[in-house]
Structures are given as structure tokens and as C-alpha cells.
Amino acid sequence: MNALFVVAGQEIKSATRERLAIALLVVFLGMALVSSSIGWATHHTVMSVYDQTVLQTGRHIPNPFAGASALEITRNTIIYIVLIGALLATVVGVRSAVRDRKAGVTDLIFSRPMGTRAYMLGKLLGVQAWMGIVLVAALLASWLSAWVVLGAPLSWSATASLMGFFAVAWLFLLPFAVLGLVAGARSGHESTALLVPILIWVAVAFVIPQLGTAQNPSALLNPVPSAASTTDLFFKVNQAVLQPISITEHFKHAGSVILQLQDVASPAIGGDLLSLGAIAALSVAALALVSRASMRRPLHE
Amino acid sequence: MNSPSLVIFRKELGDARRSRLVLLLIAGLGAIALLSVIVAAAAYHAKVADYQHYLDALKQAGGTPPTAPLFFPLQLLRGAVEYLEIIGAIVAIVIGYGMTAKEKNRGTLRLLFSRPVSGAAIALGKLLALAVIWLAVVAALGVVMIVSIRLVGGTGLSSLELTKLGIALGLSWVYLFLWSALAMGLAGLTKQLSTALVVGLILWLGFVLIIPQIGDTMDPDNQVPGGLFKSLQIAKPQEKAVMAHFAGYERTRNFLEETSISKHYERGSFGYLGVKDKYNQLPLGPINKDMWTNVAWLVGGAILVVGLAVTQTTKRKLLRKA
């Protein structure tokens, strides 16, 4: 158990020295900051369009944003976690796994009383602790920027919702960190280790949802998930088969409900959390795919 | 005809034919393009079936039938274009990066530079190979698209539609080549190869996903389910009159989108394929008139990254220690 925490501690130290991980962190925090500004500018414009329409038509029209949550301005954060957060988790995972292989210290580590599972679990613990730090920083950035653009701090309940959202984001990012770790530990080339998880992410984020909903890839960049747009058998079957593994859509739905966004079809998130939890648990089990032999293989760039 | 560039060009084509990774990535791209046409055709058939049910119910109730959903075969290619825009760009980055990375990994660069060959000649040979590889891929994708429209959509394409498809495929060729040349340039620019790949992926993330996503988000019509203007129950002329008051905001949004090369590729392809209703069924003249700026951006971008790839493929840069 002690060895596991030693590896995890080492991971956090190494991640803070990793320039690329820092660069992605800066991009991620920057996007969390601008997300609120973009949300506010758009919200403000829509309200002005509404006022202008009422003025020009002279009719009473229901306000499309009546009763909208204060967290509506942070809606883009959902998609930035799906895009940048997943890439960050993958890169940090890959770099973590290849670091020791590149430095040639794997043999030394395994000459000590250290099992492969404890080693990989320690790495995952470290990577997820690092991702936790990143998400707490993003939470603070979102909260502060919401305060600035709204002119008042978020209420306690809105703050709790924001915290809940980032907790779900942490769970959502875990499989991507594992994917990076496993690819980094098993691959013969560092570039392949980076590429394979990213291609899997692209398939999960774009291809799988399209098969179930008929939505085009660019429509899947909407923070609110796409509902099945047709009752056709082809899509019904695809939806039933692929929905459990469509974790980006589960995260988008759970995130939209937690942030109280307007256009969410169903308020129930039990199924989403179950799917995210199950995939996260399966991912941790997938660490068993890493063996000492694969870690000791020579690694090319 | 045995200049160093041509020798390298032939060697690169041979390498690509033998590389399982390249073949796998290209086959995957073709499979996704085919899948997207199947999904689009299935969605259209489902829409027609829904319309028929609605029509039958309406006939029984004695109501006026609405307009039937219209079928435009080139519109089935929307998903395929978006996949080329998103996934094609990643595949292009990997293939372009591989052009330099494999030489570094195999240690053949020292051998190559021990011969009387300039960096520019190496770069030109590799870029020419990339251009030919992407030309072959795009041509194969074109055949897949035409055959799948025929089989799944149940219709052939007219000569005008084939010309429009040809132009859209030409834009795809420039777009994919651009990403490959950029990745090749980055592999020379950065000391560590994996850094080049990560930088390429960050640029891909920014230009392909984040900037277009911000542009879409800032569109007021996308802020309300079903569309803002539909929810406000106003007609198109009124919508234009209202939006005239927000010209500055719209200009900013458009400027943001125009900084993304992917958006230019998307706008150009959607224009020629008639995915955007405004250009559907139009002759080539008016489409060319509106789309030339997008084409110019793409070509200009490609020329810039070719410059980057050539200037970064030098003995000093490629042989430096990481």
C-alpha cells in the first residue's frame, strides 16, 4: 500500500514538471475562463434580440430565457471537458506510463518489492489526483468568471451544482487517463501510444453517438446531448446497443442536468452516472492488461 | 528523371503501400465515410416513413397535406465531409508526422544527409508523395461516395452533381494535404518527435473543434431548442431586420469562425454539395462567386504550411539531439 502512494506522489511531482501537461492545463483553464464570457455575451445578445423582436412586432412573445439558471453561462464548459479535458487526461496518462520506460528505470523499479498492479494503480492514483487539481482550478476559474460577468457571486445551490458537475467530470475523465496509461505501457512507440487513445476517443465522441441518433459530427459538439431523432428500427437498435458505452453523451446529459440547462430532455441522471461509474470501474480493471514484459519492451519515439 | 526528390518520392510511396498503420487509417476513414452515408440514407428513409404515416392520418382527418421531404443525394455526404474535417485531419497529421518520424526512429536521416542531397530536395520528395497519397485516397473516397449513394440512396448523380462532388473532393484533397504538411513541418520544428505530435493535436483541437464550436455557440439561433427565431415566431424578413441591429456581434462571430481553416473547408464543401440550402440546386457560377474566398484560404494555408515543411526539413534541425 505504501509503494502505491509513493508511485502516486512521484506522479504528481512529475506532472507538475511536464511542460506539455502544463500547456494543456493552461489551455483548459483559459477555456473555463472564456466559457463564462462567451456564455454571457451570447445570453446578453439573445435577450437583446428578444427585446428588439418585441419592439418591432409589437406582440407579446414568451421570453425564451425566462427562468434560466445562472449556470447557463457555463454551458460550454461541458464540451471543453469532453474535448480538452479528455485530451489532457490521455496525454497525462501516456506521458506517465512512458516516462519511466524512457528513463530506463522500469527494471530498477521492478527489482524492488513492487507488483505491476500496485505500480499501475499508483500511477492512476497520481494521474487522477493531478486531474482533480486541474478540475478544482477549473471550478474556481468558472466560479470567479461567473461572478465577474453576472456581477454577483453564485448562490450556494448553484455553487453546489457546479461542484457536482466537476465531480462527475473527474469520473468521466478516468477512463481516458487509464486508456493513456495502458497505451503508454504497452506500445512500442510513444507516438502510437498517443494516437490510439485519441482515435478511440474520436470514435466514442463522434461515431458511436451518430449511429444511434443520426446527428452529424458537428452537431455532437453541442453541450446538450442529441436525442434519437427518429423512431426508425435502425437507430433504435443502434441506440440500445451503443448507448451504454456512449460515455461522452452520458456525461453531456448528466452535466446539462446538474448545471440546470434549459434544453435537457429528461432530468434523470441515474442511468448516466451508472454508465460512467461502470465504464470507470472497467477501466481500472483494464490496468491488468499491463504486464512487466510490456513495460520492459524498448520504447521508440 | 532520377533527381533526389523523385527517388525520395518513389521510396515514400513504397513505404506508404507497405505501412499497415497508414493502410489501416485510410481504410478506417473510408469505412467511416461509408457509414455516414448509410446513416444519412437511413435517416432520410425514416423521415419519409414518418411523413407517410402523418399523411395517412391527415387524409383520414381531411386535412391539407404538408410538403413531402425532398431528396438531394449530395446532401447525404454532409456527415462524410464532417468526418474528413475532424477525423481526416487527425489521420493526415499522423501520416505527415510519420514522414519525418520514421526516418528519425530508424536512424536513416544521418545516412540520407551523408549523400549529396539537400533538405529542400528531401522535403519536396516527401511533400510530393503526400500529395499523391492524398489524391489516391480522395479519389477512392469519391468512388465509395458515388457507389454508396447509388446503393443506399437508390439514385445516380447527374453530370452537374458529379462536377460539384469533384470540386468538393478537390477541397478535401487540399485540406488533408495541408494537415499532413503541417505535421511534417512540426516534426522538423520541435526537438522531440512526440512534442510535434502533441502540438499538432493541440492545433487540431483548436482549429477543427474549439473555434468552430465557439462560433456555433455564439449563433443566437442555436441558443434555444428548435431555434430562437422559430420560438419567437417571426418570419425570415423580420429575422433579418432584427439581426441588422446586431451586425457587430455577427461580424465578430464570423471573424472568429474565419480564423479556422477547417471552417473554410466546411463552408466550401457544403456550398458545392448543396448542404447549405442557399446553394442547393444552384449552377456552379453563383456558388463559385460565393465560395472563392474559402477556396483561397485553403490554398493559401496549404502554401504556407508547405513553406514551413520545406524550411524545417534541414540537416541542422533534423539531426539535432533531443
Structural class of chain B: mainly alpha
Number of helices of chain A: 11
- Characterize the main sheet of chain B: none
> Which sequence of SSEs, written as H and E, runs from N to C of chain A?
HHHHHHHHHHH
How would you sum up the major sheet of chain A?
Answer: none
Hey, roughly how much beta strand do the residues of chain B contain? under 5%
> What's the pLDDT, averaged over the residues of chain B?
86
Q: Largest interface here, residues on each chain?
A: A-B, 58 and 64 residues
Extract low-pLDDT stretches of chain B: none
Structural class of chain A: mainly alpha
- Write down the Rg of chain A: 21 Å
Relevant terms:
heterodimer, A: 301 residues, mainly alpha, 11 helices, globular, B: 322 residues, 13 helices, 0% strand, elongated
Quick overview:
Chain A is mainly α.
Describe the structure in your own words.
With 301 residues, chain A is mostly helical. Helix content of chain A is 74%, strand content 0%. The two termini of chain A are 33 Å apart. Chain B is mostly helical. Chain B is 79% helix and 0% strand. Chains A and B meet through helix 2, helix 3 and helix 7 of A and helix 2, helix 3, helix 7 and helix 9 of B.
Write the layout of secondary structure elements.
The complex is a heterodimer of chains A (301) and B (322).
Chain A: H1 2-17, H2 19-57, H3 76-103, H4 106-110, H5 116-150, H6 156-186, H7 190-213, H8 233-242, H9 247-258, H10 270-286, H11 292-296
Helix pairs in contact in A: 1-5, 2-3, 2-5, 3-5, 3-6, 3-7, 5-6, 6-7, 6-9, 6-10, 7-8, 9-10
Chain B: H1 4-18, H2 20-61, H3 78-106, H4 108-113, H5 119-153, H6 159-189, H7 193-218, H8 228-231, H9 236-243, H10 247-258, H11 261-273, H12 284-312, H13 315-318
Helix pairs in contact in B: 1-5, 2-3, 2-5, 3-6, 3-7, 3-11, 5-6, 5-12, 6-7, 6-11, 6-12, 7-10, 11-12
